Amino acid sequence: xxxxxxxxxxxxxxxxxxxxxxxxxxxxxxxxxxxxxxxxxxxxxxxxxxxxxxxxxxxxxxxxxxxxxxxxxxxxxxxxxxxxxxxxxxxxxxxxxxxxxxxxxxxxxxxxxxxxxxxxxxxxxxxxxxxxxxxxxxxxxxxxxxxxxxxxxxxxxxxxxxxxxxxxxxxxxxxxxxxxxxxxxxxxxxxxxxxxxxxxxxxxxxxxxxxxxxxxxxxxxxxxxxxxxxxxxxxxxxxxxxxxxxxxxxxxxxxxxxxxxxxxxxxxxxxxxxxxxxxxxxxxxxxxxxxxxxxxxxxxxxxxxxxxxxxxxxxxxxxxxxxxxxxxxxxxxxxxxxxxxxxxxxxxxxxxxxxxxxxxxxx
Length: 363
Fold this sequence. Notes:
Strand content: 15-25%
Distance between the termini: 22 Å
Order of helices and strands: HHEEHEEHHHHEEEEEEE
Number of domains: 1
């Protein structure tokens, strides 16, 4: 799988990363021992709210906010929507039908679409063609489906530096949501290495969520990982569609927003030919800060906010992994709240989360 992106520039000193990764693994060192609600209630800086000037060489922690109850979890000014097909289990198992031309791969997304993609002919997903019967059948694979705009000098960065920052932002998307070893349950070390180690609240959340995942501290908010004991990925392809945009942020920083939908195909870990899809839309906002004004490390960004909507990733107790439903539904079929959601509709912005679990109209 193509992880894309451009590598360049020096990384943080070895001792910085060693200490960062060590504390991420075991919570040792001087990482604050905060209650899990602290990480659960993490919030990012509201771009629409006025903010106090950031002191020179100081880092502003993300602003806490109240967590909504239910399956939509607030965090870092973000929401996670856990949606499970319960009314129409056939949506995930797939429909039978005649084979037909899949069509050419769509051109990259250049702007927000005006509406949801058209319905695809009803076809059952198979191990050989896991995206058949869904709009993702015409999407590109991996980072090829993520549009990066032309670079221009912005804030404190030159044109070349902006281009490098955009590539590194895409590297983070690849490392957190496309890396095969991470998708199969591995630890997202490369993704973590791109995050500002001085952003203590994010560092604490990542460490807690990966060590002891829970409803309060759920690593799926940032990382795509499947439980290898429950599901196996079908093939190496992950279909993607989305784009990266940027502008000048606070204190002359480069603020980058990535809005990308990822579609994963999986089958039961124990064998069998049933194929289901998990659809995850992520909106991630990061800041490439001027080290003369904000405490950071070269080659790392500050996480400002994220929003994550999941479909068929598991609507029960958080385990830290996606756990798609197989067999045409599950025990949570009666727990839906009546809402329906089209997980392929990218024409709307990602708003705040809702209470409970909704029903996806298609997979």
